[in-house]
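Researcher: I've been going back and forth with a colleague about how 30S ribosomal protein S20 might be arranged in three dimensions. Neither of us has a model we trust, so I'd like an independent prediction. The organism is Micromonospora sonneratiae, in case that matters for your notes. Sequence below.
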Amino acid sequence: MSMIDRIRNHRNAARRARAIERALRSTNSPAVRNEILAIAQRQYR
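Model: Here is an independent structure prediction for 30S ribosomal protein S20. You can compare it with whatever you and your colleague have in mind.
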């Protein structure tokens, strides 16, 4: 893996993490929060 690929992957991971945090903060429903967390966990496996 090249250095550029590692930087790109790191940037994409940070972007996904920020998007997940934003989604979790914006919802009031525990069910939706659980659904977001389940999707996020599946994505990182």
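Researcher: What would you highlight for our discussion?
Model: I'd start with this: The chain has one domain: 3-43. After that, consider the following. The chain is about 85% helix and 0% strand.
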